């Protein structure tokens, strides 16, 4: 039986709520907000929030991410076998949390602009954003004149292999660009992350909007 959120025996954090309860609530809120934007059609998307250095709360596979219950959230130890019922893409979360201890939340959606633009940008292997004021919503970006690098990967049903490619690419410096807090999977969607749930949510909203801007802009430029 998979360990789902019990919301009982965790130590309390400031405010009287357990770290597990707070993470589970954060996952549920992220799913609901994304569904309201029509970014997670037909059970697509997956969401996770870090509980502590060794454990995350993450959506189970195949459920409506806009109507999550606490029992739809798995409490997954990092570096251990995936729990029964895990998201098909759970390893894209666990591997990144293990590699980057500063990450507090990872959100994945099948939003329209990300899903379409990722196919147009796949041949280049990355999408470069520049000239948009909104890019300052991304961590580390101070000016519209900066160039933000968003890696683009071919979609793959072999999630372990894909995860290996993602980690290898993210370990490489972005050169004269600033690495985006996220990446695109061609024809699939976007992964975005942050140090906190609100950072991840802001990054996701900014990236999807920037992708929509870019799609419109490309229609008018050769
Ligand atoms: C119905 S969408 C196909 C799977 C997917 O890409 C996704 O984001 C949802 O997978 P999960 O196993 O996390 O429900
Ligand atoms: Zn997906």
Automatic annotation (TrEMBL):
Biological processes per GO annotation: L-methionine salvage from methylthioadenosine; pentose catabolic process
Source taxon at top rank: Bacteria
A GO term for molecular function: zinc ion binding
Involved pathway(s): Amino-acid biosynthesis; L-methionine biosynthesis via salvage pathway; L-methionine from S-methyl-5-thio-alpha-D-ribose 1-phosphate: step 2/6
Keywords attached to this entry: Amino-acid biosynthesis, Lyase, Metal-binding, Methionine biosynthesis, Zinc
TM helices/strands, residue ranges: none
The name this protein goes by in its record: Methylthioribulose-1-phosphate dehydratase
Native organism taxonomy: Bacteria, Pseudomonadati, Pseudomonadota, Alphaproteobacteria, Hyphomicrobiales
């Amino acid at each position: 039986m998979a360990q789902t959120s019990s919301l009982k025996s965790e130590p309390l954090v400031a405010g009287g709520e357990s770290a597990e309860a707070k993470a589970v609530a954060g996952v549920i809120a992220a799913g609901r907000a994304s569904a309201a934007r029509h970014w997670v059609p037909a059970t697509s998307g997956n969401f996770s929030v870090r509980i502590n250095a060794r454990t995350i709360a993450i959506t189970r596979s195949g459920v409506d991410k806009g109507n999550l219950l606490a029992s739809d959230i798995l409490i997954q130890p990092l570096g251990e076998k995936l729990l029964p019922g895990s998201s098909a893409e759970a390893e894209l979360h666990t591997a990144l949390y293990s590699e980057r201890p500063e990450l507090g939340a990872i959100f994945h959606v099948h939003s329209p602009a990300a899903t379409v633009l990722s196919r147009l940008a796949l041949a280049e292997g990355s999408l470069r954003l520049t000239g948009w004021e909104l890019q300052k919503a991304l961590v580390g970006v101070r000016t519209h004149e900066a160039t933000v690098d968003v890696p683009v990967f071919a979609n793959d049903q072999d999630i372990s292999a894909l995860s290996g490619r993602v980690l290898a690419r993210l370990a490489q410096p972005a050169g004269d660009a600033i690495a985006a807090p996220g990446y695109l999977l061609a024809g699939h969607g976007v992964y975005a992350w942050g140090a906190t749930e609100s950072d991840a949510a802001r990054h996701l909203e900014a990236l999807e909007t920037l992708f929509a801007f870019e799609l419109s802009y490309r229609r008018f430029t050769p």
